[in-house]
Specification:
This protein is α+β, with helices and mostly antiparallel strands. 21% of the residues lie in helices and 37% in strands. It contains eleven helices and 29 strands. The protein is flat, with a radius of gyration of 28 Å. It starts with a helix and ends with a strand. Residues 9-15 and 62-67 have low confidence and may be disordered.
Length: 470
Amino acid sequence: MRRAFWLGLACTLLSQPLHGQDQSPAILKEYDQAIDHVAERAMESVVEIEVTGYGVPENDKDQGQQPQALERQRSIGSGVIVDPEGYIITNNHVVAGAKRIRVIIAPVTVEMESGNTRLSNPQRVYEARLVGSTRYADLALIKIEEKGLPYIPLPEHYHFRLGQTVVAIGAPEGLDHTVTKGIISAVGRQPEVDRPMVYVQTDAPINPGNSGGPLIDRDGSLVGINTFIVTSGGGSEGLGFAIPEPIVRFVYNELKEHGIVPNVTIGAHAQSITPALAAGLKLPQDWGVIISDVDTGGPAAAAGLHPRDVVTTMDGQRVDSLPKYTAFLYVHKRNTPIRMEVLRDGKPVTLAVTPVAAPPLIDNLSDLINPKRDLIASLGIFVIDLKHSAVGAMLNLRSDAGVLVAGLLGGEPATAADLAVGDVIRAINGQPLNDSQQLRQILAGLKPGDAVVLEVERQAVLQYVAFEME
């Protein structure tokens, strides 16, 4: 009898609608409509970017070797309009080595129903110019000559949280205005320990071609610029990374005003505090950031910063991790002191440290190439003028004039000149060289079959490279 009672009660309960069940379809519809509205509004500000230029072959990138030959390439990426006057933010790697940049504002199919397909935006194609770029943050600013464009603003105040819904928009594999949805998987992620850049991690599907496109939150605000994925198969595996909005805003303002984002340093070296490090040094906390070294004669030394100081705040903001420390240093207003609070032997100390310009870092000479300016087609090389340049000092070259071979033109018939990346052409046929313009003028006066002798500095040794003009 008891078993029959409980079975009957269960059947009665299961036959009744759950609390709020009749509301579920309405809630889901409202959620979908909210995402639709955000995506539709944001898509009007997202563009496709077509780039033709010269870049490192993919196999050289994969092997991580110093590239010798640069190939003519055509690539596709995304960008987001951040100013109605035609300023567009994208990734540096989308436009690096560009000879021509085109921006396509494509029609957007926003709804399909029987007998009606609704489009937004007529297609427009613009030639764009590169305003400036920074390889460190992997961001670039380009401009098209148009006004009154729809745009996504870069506000001073931003807010995003772990787990909130986000939408990625871009042109993966050239499929413009592709919208994918996910969540913020992590905030302040630092994928590379040796590279102090922080990212927003998302599981919204991102693929090649999404680079430079926006990651948008549920309010339609910019969370960041999609920049790379971690994948074993080449496609999206839910590990996408976007450059956070505060860094995007800072870089945009610097590039728009100055065309560059100068590297800065305070002449101090920091690292994360671990429990073992804290126990061994008897630190007051087992987390955060500690100064491990201070450069003699640098701004940090002048301000009184010491090794073993534990950094607690920068510009009034709490510093609890190395990524936050490096991010604060990167986006700090140039030419103004940083107000730092540290713990020294457990006691608080306040300092004012003014950053100074840091020497530029060169991972590859090809990063310095401007294809429109630096290609000498008759020799199949890209060059950089050494005169009035800091490159020679950074590479410890003997030569302070002439031209530095920064890249070789691949995919073309090989030139008879036996030149390599890193060579300095000091003279041609006994005539000393000042710059690339002089080299072009001399080459233009030579005929096929004429003998050419270049005096070259190669690995600090002077030697001759002889060949005949073709």
